[in-house]
DNA sequence: AAGCTACGTCGATT
DNA sequence: AATCGACGTAGCTT
């Protein structure tokens, strides 16, 4: 589905200037700049609607794709898997998608993906002998929910966990990001992180600081995955797709 | 009853 | 106008 519509306009290696603010839709869109794409995808499609997703073939045999199971200290694991099932990165040379074995490695790659483009040979970093001649690990067919991540997000502090939870299709937002501290506290905004660190200077002494956190959410590959917002206050016309609200059937 | 998760909301921002 | 950021909460889980 990826149109080879690339324009040679790639300005890879965004200047050091500013990591974040540099990215616009252009950097995000896979058609444009394919040199630094990181993607995570949800293998399950948020439980709600469990379409008939033929569980696809294993990515590539013996990869320890072990996802850190939700460490709910409350035992129960209502959710079998965290929202994200696999992490992939696209080779800047052959454009094939490569599965990254662990979230840690994925975050490591992501942090500097703009400066250090990923190429198949780098799979050695996780002891995998790979070249651009090898068939791709997976393709963006429509069988999964793909989330295009934002480049250059700081690595999660050791001992902490950053989790992206993709919402169900049709929701008003695509996903949410949560951080869990080593102590097990879940935090869901920079405001909460800030407060938490203030209340627990222990971490700050350990070297943890705000710059290591980012609640930037990935965006869905599927364009219409997220429901559009209701209607703006200024707009007079309502969305014709208003829920089947009971019609004041005057004719009755 | 209490804890969580997933989702809606809405002001702020781009 | 679209997206982001932060947070309130319904309702499910423990």
From TrEMBL:
Residues 146-220 form the MBD domain. InterPro entries: DNA-bd_dom_sf, Methyl_CpG_DNA-bd, Znf_CW. It is found in: Nucleus. Residues 1-12 have a biased composition (Basic residues). GO terms for molecular function: DNA binding; zinc ion binding. The keyword Zinc-finger applies. One of its GO terms (cellular component) is nucleus. It holds the Pfam family zf-CW. Residues 1-29 are annotated as: Disordered. Keywords: DNA-binding, Metal-binding, Nucleus, Transcription, Transcription regulation, Zinc, Zinc-finger. The keyword RNA-binding does not apply. Its main location: nucleus. Residues 81-140 form the CW-type domain. This is MBD domain-containing protein. It comes from Aegilops tauschii subsp. strangulata. The lineage of its organism: Eukaryota, Viridiplantae, Streptophyta, Embryophyta, Tracheophyta.
């Amino acid at each position: 589905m990826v149109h080879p519509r690339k324009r040679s306009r790639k300005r890879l290696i965004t200047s050091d200037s500013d990591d974040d603010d540099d990215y616009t839709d252009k950097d995000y869109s896979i058609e444009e700049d394919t040199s630094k794409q990181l993607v995570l995808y949800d293998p399950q499609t948020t439980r709600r609607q469990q379409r008939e997703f033929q569980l696809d073939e294993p990515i590539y045999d013996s990869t320890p794709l072990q996802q850190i199971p939700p460490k709910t200290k409350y035992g129960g694991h209502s959710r079998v898997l965290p929202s994200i099932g696999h992490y992939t990165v696209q080779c800047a040379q052959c454009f094939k998608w490569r599965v990254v074995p662990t979230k840690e490695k994925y975050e490591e790659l992501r942090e500097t993906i703009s400066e250090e483009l990923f190429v198949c040979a780098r799979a050695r970093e996780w002891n995998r002998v790979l070249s651009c001649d090898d068939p791709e690990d997976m393709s963006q067919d429509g069988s999964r929910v793909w989330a295009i991540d934002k480049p250059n997000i700081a690595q999660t502090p050791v001992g902490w966990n950053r989790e992206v939870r993709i919402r169900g299709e049709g929701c008003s937002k695509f996903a949410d990001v949560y951080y869990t501290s080593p102590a097990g506290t879940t935090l869901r905004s920079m405001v909460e992180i800030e407060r938490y660190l203030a209340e627990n200077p222990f971490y700050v002494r350990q070297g943890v600081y705000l710059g290591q956190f980012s609640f930037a959410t990935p965006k869905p590959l599927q364009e219409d995955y997220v429901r559009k917002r209701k209607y703006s206050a200024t707009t007079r016309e309502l969305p014709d797709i208003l829920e089947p609200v009971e019609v004041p059937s005057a004719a009755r």
